[in-house]
Amino acid sequence: MALARSAQRAGARSGYGTALASMLQTVAVMGPARINAPLTQAITAPMMGRLQARGAPPLVEFLACLALRLVHYAVLLAAFIYVILGGIDEFTGSYETLTSWLGIVPQGATAALAVTAASQTLWAIFFSTIQVAAYRRALAHWPERDERGAPTRGDDPSPAAASEPTPAASEPAPAASEPAPAAPEPSSPRATGRFDPRAIVVAALLASALLLASTSWPLLVCVAAWLVPAWLLSRPDNDALPLGLALAGLLAFAALSGGLLSGAGLELTLQRVARAVLLVAVATWMRAAAGPEGLREVFHRALRRLRALPALREAGAQLEGLDSGPRLIAAGRAAADRFADVPLKPLPIVDAVIAWTAAESARYRPGTGPPTQHLRLRAPDALLVTLTLTPALALLGG
Questions:
Q1: Residues sharing a CB contact under 8 Å with residue 175, sequence separation 6 or more, in sequence order
Q2: CA-based nearest residue to 203, from 191, 216, 193, 217
Q3: What is the pLDDT of residue 196?
C-alpha cells in the first residue's frame, strides 16, 4: 500500500525506486531467502498506484496486476521445475504419479503444464482481486496525518467512518512506533566481519552459479567443503539462520518428494536435494557473513554506479534513509498493538492495515544512514573469492 501511494503521489519512477530500495533492505535485513514473498507486491504496487492516479477503472488495474502476477508465477514455476525438480521430465513424472490413478485427468507434459498453469491462474485471479480491492480502498481514502502520525481527520479509510469507526483505526498510532535512537554504526565492515562484503557477495554469486551448472557429487562436495570453513571464518551474524534452515527444509522436501514420485532414481534425487540445500545455505551465508550494513554498503555502491538507469537514482536515495533496526522493530510493535483488538473480519482488518500504514508513512523521516564505509580488498578477500572457484575443477574433471 505504501509503495502504491508513493507511485500515486510522485510517479512510477519514484514508486519503483522505492520498491527496489525496500527489496534491497529486505535482503540486507533478512537475507536473500526472504526475497520472493514481498516481490509480487514490489512488482505490482507502483504500477497500480500510477493507474489509480490516472483514474483507471478497477478492471484495468485488475488485468494489469493479473498480467504481472502471472509472469512472476511463470518464472517461479520454471525455476522450480529446472532447479529443484531437475527438468520437465521429472515434473511430468511426478504429475502423472499423482493423477494417473484417477483415470480422468489428461496425462503427458502438455497436460501437466496446462493443469499447473490453470491452477496458478486461478490463484492469481483470487489474489489480484483482493490486492486491487485493498489498494483502491487505501488510496481512495488515505488517512491524513500530521508529522507525529496523529490523525488530522477521520482516520478510518472507509467511507462510513463517521458513523461506524473502527476501534483500531480511530486511535492515534501508539507511541511505541516512534523511532528509537539508532545504535552507533561501525565505520568498517571488519568491525563485525572478517571479509570485505563485496568479496562475500561475489563469492556467493560464484558459488550459486556453480551449483546451478551441475549436480555432480564432486562439485557438491567441493562447494560444501568451501562453505563450511568460509562460514566458520567469517564471524557470521546468524540472525537469519532460522529462516534459512526453514526454507532449506522446504526445498529439500520438494526435491526429495518430486524425485521419488517421478522415478528419477535415489542417487539423482539426493543430488538435487543437496543442491537445493546448498543454494539456500550459500544465500544465508552471504547475509550472515556480510551483515545488514555490509550488504547495504554493497547495494549503495552498486546503485551509485548504475544511477543512470531508470529508478536507480531514486532507489539509492530511498535506501540511504532506511534504518535496519530500531524503526522496523518499533513499527512492528505498533502493528501488534493496533491489530490486537481488531475483529477477525476482512474490512476491519484491511482498514486497520491502512491506518497503520498511513501512520507509519506520515511519521517516517529519512535518516542520514550509516557513515560511508571505507572498504579495501585484502589478501583474505582475494583468497575467499579464489577458493570459491576451486569447485569448478570438478566440472572440468567431469
A1: none
A2: 193
A3: 92
pLDDT for 91-149, tens place per residue? 998 888 888 877 787 888 899 999 999 999 999 999 999 999 999 999 988 887 655 55
Best-predicted range by mean pLDDT (35-44, 117-126, 263-272): 117-126
Nearest Cα residue to 371 out of 180, 195, 181, 185: 185
Angle (CA) 331 38 33, round 5°: 100
**Spatial separation of the C-alpha atoms in residues 65 and 48, rounded to whole Å:** 7
- Please tell me the least confidently modeled range out of 77-91, 144-158, 305-319: 144-158
Interval 257-277 mean pLDDT? 90
Task: Tell me how many degrees the CA angle 370-206-199 measures, rounded to the nearest 5.
Answer: 35
Model-level pTM? 0.81
What are the φ/ψ torsions at residue 149 (nearest 5 degrees)?
90, 5
- How far is 74 from 71, CA to CA, in rounded Å? 5
Half-sphere exposure of 327 (CA within 13 A, CB side): 15
Cell 507525529, residue located: 148
- Cβ(167)–Cβ(342) under 8 Å? yes
